[in-house]
Amino acid sequence: MAVSIIRYLDDAGALHWGRLVSQPPTGPNDIVKVIDLAIDGNSSTGELIAEFEWNSKAFERGQVKQIKAKSLQSPVTKDATLICQGLNYSDHAAEAGHHQRKQNLLFAKASASLSGPYDDILRPAGVELLDYEVEVGIVLRSKLGMGDVVDDSNIGSYVAGVVLCNDVSARDVMFAASFMQWYQGKSYRTFCPAGPVLYLMAPSEVAVTLENLEISLTYQGERRQHAITSQLIFKPAETLTQIASITDLGFGDMILTGTPGGVIAQGTPKLIETLKTHLLDDASRREGIRVEMKNLANFLQPGESVSLTMRDLHADVDLGGQHSVIAEE
């Protein structure tokens, strides 16, 4: 049976891993009940998963305590490798101008971007086109490498759990810097709020759960994004097989599976023409993109907030939510 794992700071500044035994939080002012786990709070997510694999019964015992949700940290630790999928829902691909997806788009995101579910998102100096992306992160329970072929019959041997993530993006850096710096535009500190929980599953639960996760994002009180993972174009098993043909991943590493439609940035014909016409002219491309995007929409501003939620529809389980305020770096 799946369990919800949290990671938090106590009043003395010490880290703890715990199992959630109450409803998951959706905001920083919530109070939740946890059982501390008998594992060093400084242990990595990979080490936690290894402990769960070795002795899952130990996760069921302990004394219940109450903690403030605002103390929660990312349940994915910063030693993890983060691989992302782009344009993996048809409505998002369409709004970006890619109506026919024929190849899986993979890119990297720095793990230093990981932050807690209720931390501020810091807008870097000079960034004007700050955007949100609600996503499901899948966390590995075993090594993935050359020759591995993943399908629905064995995906539970590779995937340990899922985490709600916000793949925050600086669109002006992604598309306007020299040769379009996706890694930089995705990787600033605080650009990957994660949590509140790591939803750890038994291997037999993984395949059906990965088809039935519902995610949503609300911006300034208005729902902007909503999807169910059955709508993913390139499914997790196919994606893991492709990644295995390229590189090695291990315990605790995470794949962000893509965001649905409803992001602020839209791939208008004028924007696409600007990208093509000024590919080698950084200054003209940046100015053209900045003007076109800002004429169409308001991007994330200091003082504004985004809220995200995730739910396991198959098990009828809420997996909590995030709430982040935008702040100047």
From TrEMBL:
Belongs to the FAH family. Gene3D superfamilies: Fumarylacetoacetase-like, C-terminal domain (3.90.850.10). It holds the Pfam family FAA_hydrolase. The lineage of its organism: Bacteria, Pseudomonadati, Pseudomonadota, Betaproteobacteria, Burkholderiales. InterPro entries: FAH (IPR051121), Fumarylacetoacetase-like_C (IPR011234), Fumarylacetoacetase_C_sf (IPR036663). It comes from the Bacteria. GO terms for molecular function: hydrolase activity. The keyword rRNA-binding does not apply. SUPFAM superfamilies: FAH (SSF56529). This is Fumarylacetoacetate hydrolase family protein. Residues 82-312 form the Fumarylacetoacetase-like C-terminal domain. Keywords: Hydrolase, Metal-binding. Its cofactor is Mg(2+).
